[in-house]
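Memo to structure team: turn this sequence into structure tokens by end of day. - J.P.
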Amino acid sequence: MKFTIVTFGCKVNQYESNMMKEQMLQHHFLYVDKITEADIFIINTCTVTNTADQKCLKLVRRYLRNYPDKVSVVVGCSVQNNEAKYQDLGINILLGNKDKSQVAEIISKYLTDKQAYQFITKNRQLPFENMQLETYDHIRAFIKIEDGCDNFCSYCIIPFVRGKVRSKDYDLVLAEAKCLAKNHPEIVLTGIHTGHYFSNGHDLADLIIDLSKIPELKRIRLSSIEVTELNDHFLATLKNCPKLVDHLHIPLQAGSDFVLKAMNRKYDIAYFREKIAEIRQIRPNIAISTDIIVGFPGETEAMFQETLAISQKLAFSKVHVFPFSPRKGTVAAAMDNQVSEAEKHERVKRLMALSAELEKEYYQKFHGQTVDVLIEKSTDGKSVGHTGNYLEVTLNETLTVGQIYSRVL
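Reply from structure team:
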């Protein structure tokens, strides 16, 4: 039988979808890109914002309506967070965030007994669900090394749907990386709270050091790391491990101490600035991207101006901008002084405009310099790839996908 997968959301979801695809292939199912050609569809959902939930539910309903004879499998964070909204839709297989690694077996059983299957646990105390990949559907391969979050930021639903922090076995990560590095020169370490990785007495910096010893692996990238996790061990690794790329994604979330405290973030602006300064003493040209939420309850225009000012001061290479999305069950959803949708929209536009300026300024710093480009696509005499510091580069030549080339920008 043929199957297809649709993935919403973060790099962790992308990794898990790759894992489900690999598991299905190992169980002799055939993968197709088009829903019209599939006998089975799997939708891996996201719940990080209300918009994400709405998009997931809309697609699920459309597929169920348009393809009633196909086997429907819906899994992931939106299911975990909105169980009641999915339970009565007539979905054949419904899973939260546990047992994704068993999807192929669950589908095989369903095809035999035709019994609908639902499993959504509300237990946060879960073990790490080990998943192993032999290949990845992109030149940069992701490895999920951690799951869960214990921070409970006041706006975030993820600790409730992903459970407590837990880590993948250290030796399993190294074994998976050695396998993937045969065909993927860059590996991205990802998780819900990647910097909290700890296994067999080893932390994230230890893991980066040991991964750097794999000869075929040319680049190590982190999907994200919190500023509070940039300890001396990590900074020493940043200094001494050239395979760790010149790019860190460090969420700021707000430029106002008042807002940060209301968000239940674990730092203030002075601490954040100090850590960025330490990083740039080690690597002056590093790209530092960030996430910022605008329109958090109680955020005034003056506080938003603080966010604009610190973003300019820290010269982020890119700002990922999100309007505040009240999530039922979180502290922030019940806060007073909610910012209007119109004001949030206007602030998003202003911060995105600043992000575009900062991104252009960062690119211009490398004009005329020689950079190393990992080629990810090559068609019609053009090749596209990224540098270690995540500059997207288009070259007017046909180059080999998966190879790194030195070129002058």
